[in-house]
Amino acid sequence: MRQLKINKSITNRSSAALDKYLVEIGREELISTDEEVELAQRIHRGGPDGQAALDRLTR
Predict the structure, then answer these.
(1) pLDDT surpassing 70 at residue 13
(2) What domain range is 40 assigned to?
(3) Which uninterrupted H or E stretch holds 33?
(4) Are 54 and 38 in contact (CB under 8 A)?
(5) 50 lies in a domain?
């Protein structure tokens, strides 16, 4: 059986993509704890209202 040699390697990547992502998600309005609970309850109940809540929670 051949022995597997594992080398630790670190990929050097530009942080520009990460910076862009962080800027983009920073523009999103955060929901409150109460709104998150309400959305979760609507999702649990299902139906069109549940789907709308899921869309709001995951956008």
Answers:
(1) no
(2) 32-59
(3) helix 33-45
(4) no
(5) yes
pLDDT for 9 beyond 70: no
Q: Whats the size of the chain, residue-wise?
A: 59
Q: Is the dihedral of CA 37, 59, 56, 51 positive or negative?
A: negative
Is residue 37, in this structure, part of any structural domain at all? yes
B/e letters for 22-42, b = 16+ CB within 10 Å, e = fewer, are eeeeeeeeeeeeeeeeebeeb
Question: Within a domain: residue 7?
Answer: no
pLDDT for 45: 97
Chain segment 17-40, per-residue pLDDT in tens: 888 888 999 998 899 999 999 999
